[in-house]
Write a structure and sequence with these properties.
With 224 residues, the chain is an alpha+beta fold. It has helices spanning 12-19, 26-34, 43-54, 57-61, 65-69, 76-95, 106-117, 154-164, 184-198, and strands at 124-130, 136-144, 168-174, 203-210, 215-217.
Length: 224
Amino acid sequence: MAISDWPVAERPRERLLSLGACALSDAELLALFLRTGPRGQSAVDLARALLGDFGGLRGLFGATRTEVCAVRGLGSAKYAQLQAVQELARRSQGGALPQGKCFESPDAVAQFLRAQLAHYPYEAFGCLWLDNRHRALGYDELFRGTVNGASVHPREVVRSALRRNAAAVVLAHNHPSGVAEPSAADRQITQRLRQALELIDVRTLDHFVVCESATASFAALGLL
């Protein structure tokens, strides 16, 4: 049954306008974005199926273009819209890069990096590049992996540093487990990257491990 055939009080849009967005389920909110489902399915039916197939909103927003476009009723246009919505949410939460400006504090850096990485259901690794006055030059997400880890290659990090003409870097990766404590492997790769970047006169200022509700700083922990 199409949503337009539902009782008015049960339709997601009317419920949102009447009760507010917080009153809607994940499936109802996603249905408002999708607007329609494929033949024989309402947008809510499609939304529920997507959340089940991808393991929730985090899994859906972290899915690749190929994975999203393989779903009946979706395509490149919907994938692009999903990415745009996600980026708008990041920016509204402090995830916009202050290009050419200094971050006001380490907390501001942590907030920015959390917005970039914490939502992924798998590990991802990124670099925040800075000039010699610690002004932002750019952010590069360089590696993605599984729920348990991402392979980080120093050569690619060095290449990114040279491309950005950076003088300093803040490294970052997420822990989908929700535990921000650096692992032994995290410490090892940090030292390898620090040594590799020193060869091209790029200073490693910090390495943040981020989760949705916590952040760990190597510098604050005395690990750099």
